[in-house]
Amino acid sequence: MISNFPPGLIMIIGALLIPFLPHIIRQIYMMVLILVSAYALTLGLGIHSKIEIMDIQFIIFQSDALTLPFAIIFHIAAILNVIYGAHEKHWNQHVAIMSYSGAAIAAVHAGDLLTLFVWWEATAFTSVFLILASKTQRSYKSAFRYILIQVGSGMFLLAGAILLMSKTGNAEFKNFDINSLYGQLIFIAFGIKAAFPLLNGWLQDSYPEASEIGTVALSTFTTKLAIFCFAKSFAGTEILIIIGAIMTFYPIFFAVIENDLRRVLTYSLNNQLGFMIVAIGIGTELAINGAVAHAFAHILYKGLLFMGMGAVLYRVGTCKASELGGLFKFMPITAICTIIGAISISAFPLFSGFVAKSLIMSALGKEGLIFVYFMLLFASAGVLHHSGIKIPFFAFFAHESGIKTKEAPLNMIIAMIIASALCILIGVFPTYFYEILPHQIQYQPYDFSHVVGQLQLLTFAAFAFICLWHFKIYPPELNSTVLNSDWIYRKMIPGILLPLLRLISDINKKTEQFIVFTFTSIKRFFSDTMIKNKVFDREVGQDTLIVVQLFIILLIFIFVWKIYL
Amino acid sequence: MKYLFEKFGKINTSVLFLCIIFLILELIGHRYGETSIEDILFFPAFFGYLSCIIIFKLGVSLRSFLMKDEDYYDK
Fold first, then answer.
1. In degrees rounded to 5, what are phi and psi of residue A111?
2. What is the torsion angle, in degrees rounded to the nearest 10, for the CA atoms of residue B3, residue B9, residue B15 and residue B17?
């Protein structure tokens, strides 16, 4: 019975009890919920649960080769989130994280678009509380924008699903044609959550405003759910290669100038999503494996980097590069774990990023997509620059900030050590990792050319940074706001719309004044004339009224006569 | 060597030595790339170094029109 329950659903239902449990029992209870949810994964591939509501069939639990790796990593991430957030005594974020993780896990098991829509919106409504948890004015505003955009994405998905149903009679979650209208609507819905270029503003706007626990959870689920959906529905869609290549490229420049290190990580997240989108666009077995492997590895190392910065934020109260520095001696374990995350994302051999990214680069090479290949190679150097070096360097080394603090809480350290260990294990034993990928193919990332080429690329890129820093060419980090695509709806549209609305309001007010004045004048004129001529005297008034009434009745009669007869 | 360590820093010098080691490795074995351009001697090293400089230069030049006051959106 419990095994037929869709994975994730038990976590959402179980989250309702969390507020009533004491702190320690709550932590154990959340772990148990995740393990019970994970138990359903043992059922194997196929459709396991369906329900019918108003003659519409909802496939609420189906599993395939693509579902499994995402389900595994989502469960692992949920466990890491629980451990990482264990120091938080209040229940609100625990409820949000548990139900958010559950909704994302349930979403990857959806067999139809309507079920997916329910969980799609559930991820939005549960995750917004993680942004609100910061309890700052900025986070409230950001959360409002976040929920509007996320729900908007859901509306596109629903519209696409309804169109698909009207055409085919069902809304099965499968491969869609990008040339159809429903395909395009669904594509936009997924694109918003995958933070496509110009649709990415919400990501950099909201994630850094969330609590230190919240950002770790947020970085895991929403965007990776979109990647899963693209891999399932639009594998081999060529436009994704172009979109993905742009995504890998432009965020690196923004990350270079951004001062808030958690925001730097969101640009990095955007860039990494680009690698996955390119791989999905290629669509070959090797490329799809690359996209899934990258999503899997990325959840771990990006989560680890956010954990490191979250620990700094928790202890120091800021994540701004301009205000940090020299924290290594106070937070050595956090620093080492963050460095492991940084090495992993930079794709150094023996770390998870290398074994995942190699699949994508090889797929590009095999397909002869040279230009995109070099764009991604260039972006790889960029990743080293902003995530590999900038994050650990400015937080833990750089200059002496004068901040004195202590190491992160034990639970945070445990979560970071587990994530670090997984990053290394995946890098050292890629064969086991490749076994859970959707397609069984032979691939060896550790050959002489791959390893030496990658090491040269990364060490020389690192050396370039060292030269820039050592010879004081690298400018100091400044407290600032870096403009991003959210500027369009935060400044540009209000900048155009508000004066326009003010103009319309002025015109409306003046027109109203004019009409009122005209009618008052006319009224005054007639009333003066009529009163003067005694038109409203009793005898005259009654006769006039009778004549007017008769005339109106005559008019109605003629009107009806002309229309119907 | 001691002079280099003192002037350039221990970590920086270590990275420099690693760079040299990886260049020597290419001379010992046969490295090939996914594309024929990558087969050029020390190509990844040049590409990595130049990419980082270009990213830095472009990033810094973007400062002038992308970087605003911290309270830009709160005004």
1. -105, -5
2. 10
Task: Of A220-224, A548-552, B38-42, give the lowest mean pLDDT range.
Answer: A548-552
Q: Retrieve residue A124's tokens.
A: 């939005």
Three-state secondary structure readout of A462-515: HHHHHHHHHCCCCCCCCCCEECCCCHHHHHHHHHHHHHHHHHHHHHHHHHHHHH
User: What is the distance between the alpha carbons of residues A180 and A174, in angstroms, rounded to a whole number?
Assistant: 14
Q: Do B48 and A466 touch (CB under 8 A)?
A: no
Chain B contact present for A462, CB below 8 A: yes
Q: Same domain for A181 and A303?
A: no
Residues A142-167 as b/e (b if ≥16 CB within 10 A, e otherwise) read bbebbbebbeebbebbbbbbbbbbee
Give the pLDDT score at A353: 96
Mean pLDDT of chain A: 92
pLDDT tens readout for residues A240-260 = 999 999 999 999 999 989 999
Task: Kindly indicate the confidence band of residue A541, based on its pLDDT and cuts at 50, 70 and 90.
Answer: low
Q: Which of B52, B71, B72 to mutate to test the interface with A (most CBs of A within 10 A)?
A: B52
The alpha carbon of residue B2 is apart from the nearest alpha carbon of chain A, in Å, by 17
CB B22 to CB A381 under 8 A? no
Looking at the structure of chain B, the number of domains it has is 1
CB contact (8 A) between residue B71 and residue A481: yes
In a domain, B73, yes or no: no
In a domain, A224, yes or no: no
Residues of A in contact with B39 (CB under 8 A): none
Work out the end-to-end distance of chain A between its first and last CA atoms, rounded to an integer number of angstroms: 70
CB A117 within 8 A of CB A154: yes
Residue A535 predicted with pLDDT over 60: no
Q: Into how many domains does chain A fold? A: 4
Closest-CA distance, A401 to chain B, in angstroms, reads 20
B8 within a domain of the structure (yes/no)? yes
Going through chain B in order, the beta strands assigned E by DSSP cover: 67-68
Contact A67, A31 (CB under 8 A): no
Predicted pLDDT at B70: 85
Partner residues linked to A50 by β-bridges: A59
Nearest to B47 among A138, A377, A478 (CB): A377
- Answer yes or no: do A353 and A493 share one domain: no
Can you tell me the distance from the alpha carbon of A497 to that of A492, in angstroms, rounded to the nearest whole number?
A: 8
| Residues of chain B positioned with their CB less than 8 A from the CB of A366 | 34
Instruction: Evaluate whether A353 touches A297 at the Cβ level (below 8 Å).
Output: yes
Structural domain boundaries, residue B50: 2-67
DSSP H or E segment with residue A79: helix A67-84
Alpha helix positions (H), A368-409: 370-383, 391-396
Token pair in block for residue A406 = 């202590």
- DSSP code at position A328: T
Please report the residues numbered 4 through 33 in chain B whose beta carbons come closer than 8 angstroms to any beta carbon of chain A. Answer: 8-9, 12, 15-16, 18-19, 22-23, 25-26, 29-33
* Three-state secondary structure call for residue A404: coil
Domain shared by A163 and A292, yes or no: no
Return the residue in B11, B34, B39 with the most chain A beta carbons within 10 A, the one to mutate for interface testing.
Answer: B34
Is B72 part of any domain? Answer: no
